[in-house]
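for the record, two folds in this file. i put them one after another cuz i was lazy. first one right below, seq on top, structure tokens after. the second one comes after a little note so u can tell where it starts
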Amino acid sequence: MNGIRAQLTPEQRAIDLDLVIDPGFVNHRKIQTVIGKAVMEIIDLKIRNLPDLPEWQKNLRIDHIYSEAVLIFCRAVGIQTLQHNLATGAGPGHLFCSVEKLGPCPDVYDKTRVISKWLPPENNEFKVEFHYSTAHIHSETTRSRLHEGNHVFAIVAHLLKFDGTRAIFDPLVMGAPWLREKDEPSTFDIMWYGHDFFENFVEDFDEFRRVKDIPSPNDVEPMRYISESAFKQCLAKILGDAVQSDWGGETSDFYTAHIHLNGKSKTAAFLLKGPARFAPMTLNHLGKKNDQIVRLAKEPAQVLFVQHCHDVTNSVRDTLRAFAVQPGNPRRFCIIDGRDSLRLLKAYDLYDKAVAL
């Protein structure tokens, strides 16, 4: 977290990049079955248009064509992330598309059929396994990382079986999450950041820029006296929005279309947590099965915010990232912990008002 905040400027973090898969595992047959005839016709056309290449290079190009077609298909039909599917009880036949960490697979060099197990951000009631043939591994780097485990992979996979606690998936594509430039060139080496790139920080947003002039406080104790409702009212004042009333079916605590990232207008959804539990935020703060982040991710927002009056643990940050940063359709996310919350209120002379509220 501190790396990207320290290494890149707010302007660099605002650059519009795409997230794709560097395909080290591609199951062509499974992909053809899932995506259907119309998409396969596009794939076939792209393959026919390839120039004369050495066989190894042609096969590599074909893997990339299949991988990009799968991501386009996922975006077009609204394929969700792994954790969204688990939380909502998706049944057999469903696909997921997300970035996940896998445990070691010691048999990947020796057997034709192997199993890789999911490593969730924190203890999770669901057990997830990926069953696959090693013949579909087309990269020695991917094979090595699957063997070692504890590596992050961008994955599109098809659910074969789910008994309520254990899910078995058949992967279509697996590989490193890879950043790609879109309309503007980057001023830094994008290859080192992967899916970490899409985290932004409170000072990155134009409406919150005054925060840069406020040093980080030594502790979060002053936030003990700021209710969730008071923080929401102050947030609305900063953004020039009306305060939204809470209701039982809400998917976020605050939604705005009046926020900008380096001059570019964004929509944003906020999950706000006050001092009712004045302690570092863990996944247990976020409802059964992390359902508050699930609901937040349902919002049609380009940026997902989680704000808390105290510190925020890495398990929350990793879970929010898993829901937001989807290959082929990445969204930005931002954690505003107690220290940044306090800086924001002080930067806009709203702390005393928040206490009074």
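(here's the note) second protein begins now
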Amino acid sequence: MQVESEKARRQPVVVLGTIGWDAHIVGAWVLSRALENAGFKVIYLGSLVSVEEFIAAAKETGADAILISSLYGMARIDCAGIREKCYEAGLGHILLYIGGILITDPEEWEETKKIFEAEGFNRVYPPATKPATAIADLRRDLGLA
């Protein structure tokens, strides 16, 4: 009988919230419910969450991923240095996802995506991305698909 790995046996954990001074929580709340229905344990932080709070929650809960929502266009500022801060906290391996209206500059989406990938995000989603897309990506990235 083959023994399952610890990661395969336990429920995957994600930390989710809206970053910075952004109070738009409806999209993140909908995503949290969809993730729970898909079998993920969601640590939902709500709105007005700092990078440090995301990282502390991920470290405390042994999270597999941090999912950040931003709709007010300031995520470029709010997320500055996030991957380095994850490394400093011993979470260099953690998956980082972000989605929404991330910047206020009128540039093409692919340019916005490159900016956040350079900041260390594994996945970058445009506004109106369906929860099923992020869930499928999480399953794939965690080796659950």
